[in-house]
Amino acid sequence: MNIFVLFSFLVTFACGWLNVEFMLQYAPFLVTHQTGNITRIALAVTKGDFLLLWSLIGVIVAFIIGSALAGFINPKGDMNFTNTFGIFYIILSGALFLFALFAGGGYIFILYGAFLSGYQNGFMTQFKIRVSHLSGISSDAGIELGRFFKVLKRRNDRNKKTSLKALSWSFGFKMISLGAFVGGAIVGTVLTGVMPFIIVLAILSAFNVAIAFIYFKAASILRAEFGRRER
After folding, report:
1. Is residue 135 scored above 80 in pLDDT?
2. I need a labelling partner for 206 at 20 to 30 A (CA). Which of 1, 87, 91, 148 fits?
3. Are the CB atoms for 89 and 212 separated by under 8 Å?
4. Which class for 112: exposed (0-12), middle (13-18), buried (19 or more C-beta within 10 A)?
5. Mean pLDDT of the chain
6. Which domains does the chain have, with CATH numbers?
């Protein structure tokens, strides 16, 4: 399971990196956080800026389609460690660089960034892990912390030690996830300041491809592990 935990942190890191690249280059559009885009839709309606309105709607739809692809790949529900996820991740990561190279960084590239983010998030959500929604991760961390103190107050609970250990692990996982996202954003910001944008995206695409191969290894181990449990 440790290698899958590493994989999830790396995907979160990549999401933070991807998000900051689009924030720096294509504000006000966001590709990983649709809450911001939906808020800007309300502002666009109020101001009568219908070009921005429809542009933002397009980004949200692209994100949903990316998530839909993840759901289409895994119709069986949670904990289905299919290699198809990794194969599509490689294809979509490579296409990120190609879109940047040939689409000239226009609106279609923004749509593709949202599509890729939707796939990443939809992919990991099926394993009950958030990778791009910091509000959700922060809320989950707060819930786990509250449960920890609730269990800590219990007396004569035979499972108290086990429950506290599980809650501590879950809380720590979510806090590291927050740090991974911030770390990815920092790396993206620093690289963008010293390299051409297209080179940074080439590095990010290669990083995502490498992550996919870590997923293949993790999925192989976990399929074997779940197979043994079922037997």
Report:
1. no
2. 1
3. yes
4. buried
5. 85
6. 2-230 (1.20.1250)
Residue at 149: amino acid letter: F
- 10, two tokens: 């790396």
> Residue 59 pLDDT more than 50?
yes
> Average pLDDT in the 151-170 region?
80
Distance between CA atoms of 205 and 162, rounded to whole angstroms?
40
User: Per-residue pLDDT for 20 more than 50?
Assistant: yes
Residue carrying structure tokens 């998030």? 121
Residue with tokens 């960084």: 105
DSSP string, 41-110: HHHHHHHT-HHHHHHHHHHHHHHHHHHHHHHHH-TT-TT---HHHHHHHHHHHHHHHHHHHHSTT-HHHH
Can you tell me the distance from the alpha carbon of 18 to that of 71, in angstroms, rounded to the nearest whole number?
22
Residue 76 has pLDDT above 70, yes or no: no
